[in-house]
Amino acid sequence: MRVKKSSNWKYVVMMMLAMVLSCSAMTAVTQAATTHTASATTDRKDGVCTYTVKGLDPSRESEFTMELRRSDNKQTMIKKQIRISEDNCVNGTYEGNITLADAKYICTSYSVHILVGTEDIKAGVCDFSIHRSRMRMLITGKSTDSARTFQLVSTEPEGGVLAPGSGNKVKVYAWQKNKSESTAKEIGGAKNLAGSSLKWTEKISKAGSAYGTWCAKIVLENENWSQGITVAQSEYKVEPLSGTLTVQKSASLEKKKSFKIVLSGFQSVSDVKQISFPIYNSAGKKVYTAKASKSGKKYVATVKLKKLKNKLGLYTVKAVYKNTGNVSRMLTCTALADERAKGGKFKIKVRKDASSKFTLSGAYLPGNIKKVTFVVYKNGKKKQDTYKAVLASKKYSAVVKSKSTGKYVAYAYGYTAWGKKILLNKKSYSIGKKHMGKQGWRYEKYNGKTYKFYYINNERQTNLTKILKLKKGSGRYTIELNRAAGVVTVYMYDTKTKSYDIPVQAFSVSVGRDVSTNAGPGALALHSSYTPLGNFSVCSNGQAVRYTLKPMHEPDGSTVYARWAVHIVGNVYFHAIAVGGQSHYSLNPNTYNRLGSPASAGCIRMTVADAKWLYDYVPTGTPIKIKQGNSKKPGPLGKPATIKVTGSIHYDPTDPQVPNSRKKADYKANRISGYMTKSGKKVGY
Q: How would DSSP label each residue in 176-224?
């Protein structure tokens, strides 16, 4: 359809007017939108967010909407329509509050939005979040301490609040690192979180005392929350302080054959139930475990060597700790128990008198040395002898006679308190001719008179029977009795000096028990008990010279039998100690043990061997001189040692009629202190 020209003009004018009106309306709407403003502030301490809306007109607008949206997921937590009036909107401004309770105590960051008409105005942030990124957990204290200091440290600005609202409390939970966090246990009670930091001390054993690394966390809790929130985490270690382990010895402990183990400076997080000391030998094998007892701040155990089966060696001592939860742990400290023998210094001084001085010093055996012996071998093979050492000034020494020249090896043996023989040291030495001392015949003085002695390797010989090759029943002798000393010495005639100056042999004897009578034979009677002084000879009064077994009548009327009796004068004889019967095994041991001291009824008692020698070698008419004498000067050959017997022995240990085997057995059993073999060799005296 065609339109008239005039109509087109009107259409254009109308369209333009409509456009103007539309633009005016849009401008009005835009101006209305730009007049609304909103803001929001958060009081974190009280847990309140205040929002303010401005530019409202109650005459034109009846309501607006407030929305609280989570910042993390944009979820709307609160949507509230607010009607405005002249009462709540003054000068176009409305103010409202959002509490943490309104947000259902969900602590996070929110944005506050105001919706007016089609407008969506972001008022600001409602910060109900917990500032975990500004929190850090510090744990201080030694790994051996039973309590630790926990600290919640923050980088919150001054005046800032770490967690919104009131009633916030923190707790510490801990668990072993090698276990699940679900095993965490609370350490201590809740602490109020009032500011931006917190510091307190707790005993960590409340969570557990197992050794190792532990995880700890600070959990923020509030009675209005459904669950706590972990705000910081750290780690700490639990270790025992090993302290110092020592092995101690002392004279009193050595006497008890023991040593002491001491653990000092030990600390533990948990209560101690038991400290024990396992002991290992040099092969690493555990041989014993000693339980310690507490002494002050130390743990001590005394170990007897018997517990180590008296085996000497170097032992390693460790320490094991067990807590009240029966959890055991080996401590890092160790100690050495040196229970080895120490050989010390072994010195041998070879002298020029056919002897050597052996000295052992600084030797040691655990439990003390019971005794030391020196065993000497010639040329490393042939055993020369065993010598007992004497202890003086902490040194063991012995003088060893040199029997011949050659090379020797000496072994020093120590005996433990329980009798075990231990080689302590050894040393080689040589003996030359220059070391052998006096040899052969020498004239030397004794008590103002010169005598002719015979030496072998510097040792004066006290029995010249074999050296002089004496024959029985012949030879020129004189016999002298020193009554005070109880010694008979036989002298032989020296053709060179034409005097009786060769001491052949000496004997220890028992003279009459009456030593106060200094009379001659004239006073002898049946009941006298003195040995007469004077000069006599064998068979002086014409009686029979010798008896192989002579019955003798005692003052009490009993009869005893004396072997190898040689007559002197009257009823006085040289003879072996009388026995109760004709048997060789009817000797009174008490009588025998008195040999060397006055004990007879006047006769001169001797051993069987000595009496038989006089019987065999001294001929009839041999001069006998009995003098008072001097006990301190017994004669040129001295006073020979005597043998002692126990009460079970009823034979003379020098009697050749008693088998060597029996004597040897009794000697080994300490029933006799010595004996003479059938061949005449002395053993033990």
A: ETTS-GGG-EEEEEEEE--SS-EEEEEEGGGT---SEEEEEEEEEE-TT
In single-letter form, the type of residue at position 506 comes to A
The residue among 187, 206, 209 whose CA lies nearest residue 326 is 209
CATH code reported for the domain at 443-640: 2.40.440.10
With H, G, I as helix, E, B as strand and everything else as coil, classify residue 392. strand
* Per-residue DSSP letter, 308: G
Question: Using an 8 Å Cβ cutoff, are 598 and 511 in contact?
Answer: yes
Please provide the CATH number assigned to the domain covering 345-435: 2.60.40.10
Domain 132-238: which CATH number of 3.40.50.300, 2.60.40.3760, 1.10.443.10, 3.40.50.2000: 2.60.40.3760
Is 37-127 a CATH 2.60.40.10 domain? yes
Rounded average pLDDT over 168-175 = 95
Domains 132-238 and 345-435 share a fold: yes
Q: Where are the domains of the chain?
A: 37-127, 132-238, 244-339, 345-435, 443-640, 643-684
Q: Which two tokens stand for residue 342?
A: 């120490």
Pairing of strands 623-627, 675-676: unpaired
Q: Are 120 and 179 in contact (CB under 8 A)?
A: no
Residue from 89, 24, 38 nearest 60 by CA: 89
Give the CATH number of domain 244-339. 2.60.40.10
pTM: 0.55
CA dihedral 266, 275, 282, 239 (to 10 degrees): -50
pLDDT in tens, 474-499: 899 999 999 999 999 999 999 999 99
Q: What pLDDT digit, counting tens, does each position of 489-533 carry?
A: 999 999 999 999 999 999 999 999 999 999 999 888 877 899 999
Task: Look at residue 395 and give its three-state secondary structure.
Answer: strand
What is the DSSP code string of 128-168?
----GGGEEEEEES-TT-SEEEEEEEE-PPTT--SS-SS--
Pairing of strands 355-361, 395-401: antiparallel
